Amino acid sequence: MYLIGIDSGGTHMVAEAYEERKRLVQENSGPGNIALDPAGTQRNIMTVLAQVFNQLPVAQCGGILIGIAGVAMAGGQEEIIAAVHRQYAVPVAVVSDADLALLNGLHGGPGVIAIAGTGSIVLAQKATGDRVRVGGWGWRFGDEGSAYDIVRRAFTMMAAARDDGQVSPIEPVLVAATQTSHYRAAVARSYQLDRGAFAGLARAVADAAQTGNTAAQACVTAAAEALAAQIHQALRRAGLPNASVVALAGSVAAKNDLFFSVLRRQLPDAELRRLQGSNAGGVQYYHFPQ
Fold first, then answer.
1. Of the CATH numbers 3.30.420.40, 3.40.50.2300, 3.40.50.300, 3.90.180.10, which one belongs to the domain with range 2-90?
2. What is the pLDDT of residues 236-252, one digit of tens each?
3. What is the pTM of this model?
4. In sequence order, what are the beta bridge partners of 247?
5. Architecture of domain 147-274
6. Please, what sign has the CA dihedral across residues 82, 87, 93, 99?
7. CA 213 to CA 147: how far, in whole Å?
């Protein structure tokens, strides 16, 4: 019997089938944030499942675990499960994409998963299996350490410098990234961008930091310190030691070297694991009800 894990994120979706820790199949589909597009998420899940079942027999599937971005806030699990059951007689469970990442990063054991991509959230799992959540409140109220947070800090720094009659080194970075010619136009342009496009400007800030722009480095460092503070908070609330496993997922936490170095300084005793690629493999550590 094999298992299928689906990592349904805001920009793309990945389905992987595993049997005895060996990946058999990997398929990709369109985005799947259920809070932003419930119908599209369901459609893409069914598409990627069909792609898997075109290669593997349905009768030998022991379960499907689907981790969906936005499901913790928007709900919709029952609708997804019902849609799958209308076509396939297979056990199905729906969790948040953060829960799927926790399974993949901690291999079912205790520790912390910190996800920082477009947004951010921190989850801690106790040895009992009970979980603690810190953050994950979205761009209006949180998303500390995320790409959105980095860009927000960069614009705040630029504006504060102008208020003081100065020009911050971050200003030309933001002007270029927004394809404008002036700091006021850059600010105006930022308000025209949706959340994802605004967060996407973090790439320009990260690139500037890598080439020695001290203001950009300060933005990335401050965001990393904010995420580290939430990780400490999660460890404390879960009663876990500082030497716990801390898995890092998302485009910022797992892939930005400066960001990672700050986390290493802030969490010197932790076993940091940088997760790359899909978290669909978390299905291997999930226990389907019998």
1. 3.30.420.40
2. 999 999 999 999 998 89
3. 0.85
4. 113, 273
5. 2-Layer Sandwich (3.30)
6. negative
7. 17
